[in-house]
Amino acid sequence: MASTTEVPYKKIEKICCIGAGYVGGPTCAVIAYKSPHIKVTIVDLNQARIDAWNSDDLPIYEPGLDEIVKASRGRNLFFSTDVESAINEADLIFVSVNTPTKKSGMGKGFAADLGYVESATRSIANLATSSKIVVEKSTVPCRTAQSMRRILDANGKPGVKFDLLSNPEFLAEGTAIKDLLNPDRVLIGSLDTPSGRSAASSLVDVYANWVNRKQIITTNLWSSELSKLVANALLAQRISSINAISAICEATGADVDEVAYACGLDTRIGPKFLKASVGFGGSCFQKDILNLVYLSESLHLPEVATYWKQVVDMNEYQKSRFTKRIISSLFNTLSGKRIALFGFAFKKDTGDTRESASISLCQYFRQERATVALYDPKVEETQIWLDLTETAPQDNLETIKKQVIIAADPYEAAKNADAIVVATEWDMFKDTNLDYEKLYSLMNKPAFIFDGRLILDRPKLEKIGFKVEVIGKASHDIGYE
Ligand SMILES: NC(=O)c1ccc[n+]([C@@H]2O[C@H](COP(=O)([O-])OP(=O)(O)OC[C@H]3O[C@@H](n4cnc5c(N)ncnc54)[C@H](O)[C@@H]3O)[C@@H](O)[C@H]2O)c1
């Protein structure tokens, strides 16, 4: 592990963050909030996104984000599309752009598309007139820093020197502000050279404004890059593991919540990330595992690639298995039936829909010729139509709109529905917050509820009259009660 305290280092006064998305926005807003002496400018090419960051209606929903932004914006936190000025005045630049899975060409469907990282790196090289510390904040394949260094060295102006650091972000959407204010750890990777160690110390000093130095760990660049992929792969692996067990529970009468609780009490296992569900979503888990699979294949490690690929395959299986259970419960046909889909975000407390299980469920229901009435408290209508058209390119929006209705509230969604499907664990969907007696009265009978998130009180709903099917719990029909 590299020492970060013995070499002289530059005190950071100005930071630029390229990419005002789910990571760049909250991360740098918290840095500004906790470091009033540092000027932080977050830039993006997307004018609408920057305008939203400068308005009262921020472009992303995160609990606590509004307060953090409002406390610092205009003081030492700025949002701008003027990439050139922000790069030029900064001592340290975070590259926090998107790294989606490649949609075409070599590695299609697995490898990360590094086009945005390359383009941001080229902008830094071309525009910087003084030396900079450049920080990979985006999640990237192992050894991307080497490519970035080559681009910077080949294109930088004479006398301008770049030090490259890796500082992956471990925040989770929905709890981003809490995670950033109180991180389990901050990871900084650098080259093990005097200048690399000095750059790492500069960044350690920024985080040390609010994070205990013991929690700021420094490693070599490649360990840092790989650790981010591995952390997400391990988290997703736990979800796929418990989801695989949920299938056994449904067939045997074991209860997945009880199994997870009993196993999680073992301190070697721990209780977190053992909640069965309809499957994980979000922009990162699938993308990062596929990235790890691609890396393993590139390194001629096919057994390793197959092992990790199974985590993603299990996730797909869980979504289709849940759909099959819904179809079979509804007397083997969804044709002409109305399904109230509760939740479209990939998890609660975010408006993000990337890789949301709800998108797959909605498309499965459409293929079965059902009408889907969906409701989500935070996702914008335009985003829902975009997601549904992108994932069903054979259908135009008009065709989709004949089968999908966006409801104003859960009661409107449930009106004349044959089933409610809970796909996102929003607190408002809990039986303590919604009037399920009213929902029952509005629905066709028998009225079904499929709990894909294990958030409902099954006996209470059955008492009302619902037929309740829960992931990881047997149907009453199979007689294991
Ligand atoms: N979303 C998460 O929960 C999360 C968590 C940890 C890590 N990450 C990683 O962080 C990175 C960013 O993710 P995100 O969710 O914030 O993505 P995002 O799509 O929300 O934001 C990326 C932003 O970068 C901007 N951008 C792209 N190229 C640019 C350029 N050359 N100049 C200026 N702006 C540019 C885009 O316009 C966009 O607004 C990804 O690598 C992701 O894997 C994401």
From TrEMBL:
<dbReference type="InterPro" id="IPR017476">
    <property type="entry name" value="UDP-Glc/GDP-Man"/>
</dbReference>
<feature type="binding site">
    <location>
        <begin position="228"/>
        <end position="232"/>
    </location>
    <ligand>
        <name>substrate</name>
    </ligand>
</feature>
<dbReference type="InterPro" id="IPR036220">
    <property type="entry name" value="UDP-Glc/GDP-Man_DH_C_sf"/>
</dbReference>
<feature type="binding site">
    <location>
        <begin position="97"/>
        <end position="101"/>
    </location>
    <ligand>
        <name>NAD(+)</name>
    </ligand>
</feature>
<feature type="binding site">
    <location>
        <begin position="284"/>
        <end position="287"/>
    </location>
    <ligand>
        <name>NAD(+)</name>
    </ligand>
</feature>
<dbReference type="Pfam" id="PF00984">
    <property type="entry name" value="UDPG_MGDP_dh"/>
</dbReference>
<dbReference type="InterPro" id="IPR028356">
    <property type="entry name" value="UDPglc_DH_euk"/>
</dbReference>
<comment type="pathway">
    <text>Nucleotide-sugar biosynthesis; UDP-alpha-D-glucuronate biosynthesis; UDP-alpha-D-glucuronate from UDP-alpha-D-glucose: step 1/1.</text>
</comment>
<feature type="binding site">
    <location>
        <begin position="275"/>
        <end position="281"/>
    </location>
    <ligand>
        <name>substrate</name>
    </ligand>
</feature>
<feature type="binding site">
    <location>
        <position position="44"/>
    </location>
    <ligand>
        <name>NAD(+)</name>
    </ligand>
</feature>
<dbReference type="InterPro" id="IPR008927">
    <property type="entry name" value="6-PGluconate_DH-like_C_sf"/>
</dbReference>
<dbReference type="GO" id="GO:0006024">
    <property type="term" value="P:glycosaminoglycan biosynthetic process"/>
</dbReference>
<feature type="binding site">
    <location>
        <begin position="138"/>
        <end position="139"/>
    </location>
    <ligand>
        <name>NAD(+)</name>
    </ligand>
</feature>
<feature type="binding site">
    <location>
        <position position="49"/>
    </location>
    <ligand>
        <name>NAD(+)</name>
    </ligand>
</feature>
<feature type="binding site">
    <location>
        <begin position="19"/>
        <end position="24"/>
    </location>
    <ligand>
        <name>NAD(+)</name>
    </ligand>
</feature>
<dbReference type="GO" id="GO:0051287">
    <property type="term" value="F:NAD binding"/>
</dbReference>
<dbReference type="Pfam" id="PF03721">
    <property type="entry name" value="UDPG_MGDP_dh_N"/>
</dbReference>
<feature type="binding site">
    <location>
        <begin position="346"/>
        <end position="347"/>
    </location>
    <ligand>
        <name>substrate</name>
    </ligand>
</feature>
<dbReference type="InterPro" id="IPR036291">
    <property type="entry name" value="NAD(P)-bd_dom_sf"/>
</dbReference>
<dbReference type="InterPro" id="IPR014027">
    <property type="entry name" value="UDP-Glc/GDP-Man_DH_C"/>
</dbReference>
<protein>
    <recommendedName>
        <fullName>UDP-glucose 6-dehydrogenase</fullName>
        <ecNumber>1.1.1.22</ecNumber>
    </recommendedName>
</protein>
<dbReference type="GO" id="GO:0005634">
    <property type="term" value="C:nucleus"/>
</dbReference>
<dbReference type="Pfam" id="PF03720">
    <property type="entry name" value="UDPG_MGDP_dh_C"/>
</dbReference>
<comment type="similarity">
    <text>Belongs to the UDP-glucose/GDP-mannose dehydrogenase family.</text>
</comment>
<feature type="binding site">
    <location>
        <position position="354"/>
    </location>
    <ligand>
        <name>NAD(+)</name>
    </ligand>
</feature>
<dbReference type="GO" id="GO:0006065">
    <property type="term" value="P:UDP-glucuronate biosynthetic process"/>
</dbReference>
<feature type="binding site">
    <location>
        <position position="268"/>
    </location>
    <ligand>
        <name>substrate</name>
    </ligand>
</feature>
<feature type="binding site">
    <location>
        <begin position="169"/>
        <end position="173"/>
    </location>
    <ligand>
        <name>substrate</name>
    </ligand>
</feature>
<feature type="binding site">
    <location>
        <position position="453"/>
    </location>
    <ligand>
        <name>substrate</name>
    </ligand>
</feature>
<dbReference type="InterPro" id="IPR014026">
    <property type="entry name" value="UDP-Glc/GDP-Man_DH_dimer"/>
</dbReference>
<keyword id="KW-0560">Oxidoreductase</keyword>
<feature type="domain" description="UDP-glucose/GDP-mannose dehydrogenase C-terminal">
    <location>
        <begin position="340"/>
        <end position="458"/>
    </location>
</feature>
<dbReference type="GO" id="GO:0003979">
    <property type="term" value="F:UDP-glucose 6-dehydrogenase activity"/>
</dbReference>
<feature type="active site" description="Nucleophile">
    <location>
        <position position="284"/>
    </location>
</feature>
<keyword id="KW-0520">NAD</keyword>
<feature type="binding site">
    <location>
        <position position="173"/>
    </location>
    <ligand>
        <name>NAD(+)</name>
    </ligand>
</feature>
<dbReference type="InterPro" id="IPR001732">
    <property type="entry name" value="UDP-Glc/GDP-Man_DH_N"/>
</dbReference>
